[in-house]
Amino acid sequence: MRNVEQQPGASFQLRPFAQGVLGEKLSLGGSLSRTSAGLVIEYRLQGSLDGLNLSSMASIAQAGRRHELWQHTCFELFFAIPGKAAYWELNLSPGGCWNVYHFAGYRTTVREERAIAQPLCQVVKEADLLSMACTLNIGTLLGGACQLDIGVAAVIETADGRSSYWALDHPGPQPDFHDRRSFLLTLPGVTASSAV
Q1: For site-directed labelling of 18, which of 29, 35, 68, 158 has its Cα 20 to 30 A away?
Q2: In angstroms, rounded to a whole number, what is the distance separating the alpha carbons of residues 42 and 111?
Q3: Do 32 and 41 touch, CB atoms closer than 8 A?
Q4: Could you tell me the residue ranges of all domains in the chain?
């Protein structure tokens, strides 16, 4: 599937790997924009939230870097410079925990990316909506001028421990958010004068 050219701001819609009950009860989309300093992303999970494991929201007082957030409800963002093997993965918990990882290539030589500081996030939960808006400062790492290929994904966990995998696209036989074929959004570089 070809990359979809995006301007500094774009909306997106994720789809589950397997339709199932959650795919019928929920929709997951949002928006993404670029500034000279970083990325701004908002996830909007809408529908029947009953039966989902969103208990991690109670842990907001312990917000900080955590590993393996993807084992529970977790919003994810992948970004890479076109033509380069390296990429980064951002994990965001509704409870405020987060982490960023750098990969030298496809699932190889992973390390925590310490050049990126804690994102600024706001979480709102209503009866049929969970929204999470975050600003990630990548300016010290990449600057604003380089174009980025973007993959957006999420793991949604039910209260009984089952996981549903959501992404822009699922090009392989199994859910794989690291597959560069699913980095379908392209955000152009921006300068201070052209940033949104």
Answers
A1: 68
A2: 25
A3: yes
A4: 4-187
Summarize pLDDT for 174-185 with one digit per residue, the tens: 999 999 999 999
Give the type of residue at 18: A
Fold of 4-187: Immunoglobulin-like (2.60.40)
Distances (CA, A) of 40 to 21, 116, 135, 165: 30, 14, 4, 22
Distance CA 48, CA 167 (A): 19
pLDDT digits 0-9 by tens, 15-29: 999 887 787 899 999
User: Which of 57, 195, 35, 78 minimizes the C-alpha distance to 126?
Assistant: 57
Nearest to 191 by CA among 32, 5, 6, 35: 35
Residue with tokens 């750098």: 102
Helices (H), the chain: 20-25, 139-142
